[in-house]
């Protein structure tokens, strides 16, 4: 058996993990696209619920595979084959949710169940990879299998009960690594690897924002508002990149008490915020959305992005907590003011200006740390 990547001196994401990210982003892109269309300028409640119901399990598929690989990846042939089969199921899943998800619900849940079973088997088969941690791996694997069965059983019920049962299994799935880990004390998270994986996925999702911007520019009539919005949209994406990665190396602070799971869970909000902001740019270019819906999407997208982004720094770097709170309150307050501008294009300009403001505010504590 190959040695664990966990003990590599200079560990980085494997080529397979990068390939997995690309397939995952295809599925997330299909879910994000649900909010890419409006009906008479408004989002329908069914759209919003569908986005939420699909986004969380997809995020958990990526997160749970990343959590497993962080501790148990050997880049062996069995690990590669299991991951590649998960990717195949993800492709099928992304094709199914592109249509009306409810029509294909049994098949969607079957794909999700198959992916969860693969993760469970990977954990169970890894019980001997860490001699003193085998009990954790085996118990977690069997527990995840039970939660997967609960989610699959939702196909026996009609809406809305089927969604309650499905999410009972999903939430149990999400909590199990923490519950089992608190009793059996698993191997600590490989922080550098986890931070790199999160950063790479964020970078790919930002690329999806650029694709959304480009798609919005297709087949439109160019005028001063379109040009202004296109330039502003790109500046917003660049600002998000700057905000996220400027102090990124601080998350690997070895003195931090932050757990890997808390960082993973906080990124759910960040990824959802990025999805909303990507659609924000698209709708501003198309000018096809009612200003009220645009205002709501703006403030929720900004709040989710900063909540998910700031949590890791707040826990990992106590020295800058004061600046984090101050900067975030300033930016969200400014964002709450600019959403009352009279046109969606002006609101996008205002939100972008607030993000640039955050970048400038961060210069206050940049000198406190020396880059590695």
Topology (elements, then pairings):
Blueprint: H1 15-32, H2 45-72, H3 77-98, H4 105-125, H5 134-152, H6 161-184, H7 191-216, H8 224-245, H9 260-286, H10 291-316, H11 321-338, H12 344-366
Helix pairs in contact: 1-2, 1-3, 1-7, 2-4, 2-6, 2-9, 3-4, 4-5, 5-6, 7-8, 7-9, 8-9, 8-12, 9-10, 10-11, 10-12, 11-12
Key features of this structure:
single chain, about 375 residues, mainly alpha, 12 helices, about 75% helix, globular
Task: Tell me what the structure shows.
With 372 residues, the protein is mainly alpha-helical. It contains 12 helices and no strands. Helix 2 runs parallel beside helix 4, helix 8 packs parallel to helix 12 and helix 9 runs antiparallel to helix 10. The longest helix is centred in the first third of the chain and has 28 residues. It is globular and about 60 Å long.
Brief account:
With 372 residues, the protein is an all-alpha fold. The protein has helices at residues 15-32, 45-72, 77-98, 105-125, 134-152, 161-184, 191-216, 224-245, 260-286, 291-316, 321-338, 344-366. It is built from 12 helices and no strands.
């Amino acid at each position: 058996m190959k040695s664990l990547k966990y003990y590599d001196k200079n560990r980085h994401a494997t080529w397979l993990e990068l390939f997995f990210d690309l397939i995952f982003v295809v599925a997330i892109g299909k879910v994000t696209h649900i909010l890419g269309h409006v009906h008479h300028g408004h989002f329908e409640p069914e759209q919003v619920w569908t986005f939420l119901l699909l986004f969380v399990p997809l995020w958990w598929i990526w997160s749970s595979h990343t959590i497993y690989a962080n501790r148990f990846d050997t880049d062996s042939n069995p690990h590669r084959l299991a991951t590649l089969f998960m990717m195949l199921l993800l492709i099928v899943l992304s094709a199914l949710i592109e249509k009306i998800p409810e029509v294909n619900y049994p098949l969607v849940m079957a794909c999700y169940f198959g992916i969860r079973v693969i993760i469970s088997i990977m954990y169970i088969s890894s019980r001997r990879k860490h001699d003193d941690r085998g009990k954790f791996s085996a118990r977690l694997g069997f527990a995840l299998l039970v939660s997967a069965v609960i989610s699959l059983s939702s196909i026996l019920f009609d809406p809305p009960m089927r969604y309650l049962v499905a999410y009972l299994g999903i939430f149990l799935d999400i909590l199990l690594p923490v519950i089992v880990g608190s009793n059996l004390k698993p191997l600590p998270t490989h922080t550098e690897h986890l931070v790199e994986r999160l950063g790479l996925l964020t970078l790919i999702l930002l690329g999806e924002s650029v694709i959304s911007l480009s798609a919005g520019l297709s087949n439109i009539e160019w005028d001063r508002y379109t040009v202004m919005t296109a330039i502003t949209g790109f500046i917003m994406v660049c600002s998000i990149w700057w905000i996220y990665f400027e102090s990124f190396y601080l998350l690997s602070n070895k003195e931090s008490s932050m757990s890997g799971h808390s960082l993973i869970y906080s990124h759910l909000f960040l990824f959802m915020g990025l999805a909303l902001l990507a659609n924000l740019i698209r709708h501003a270019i198309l000018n096809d959305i009612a200003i009220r819906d645009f205002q709501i999407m703006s403030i929720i997208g900004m709040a989710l992005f900063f909540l998910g982004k700031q949590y890791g720094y707040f826990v990992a770097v106590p020295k800058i907590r004061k600046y984090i709170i101050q900067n975030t309150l300033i930016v969200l307050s400014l964002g709450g003011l600019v959403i009352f501008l009279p046109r969606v294009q002006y609101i996008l300009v205002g939100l972008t200006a607030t993000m640039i403001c955050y970048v400038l505010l961060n210069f206050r504590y940049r000198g406190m740390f020396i880059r590695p």
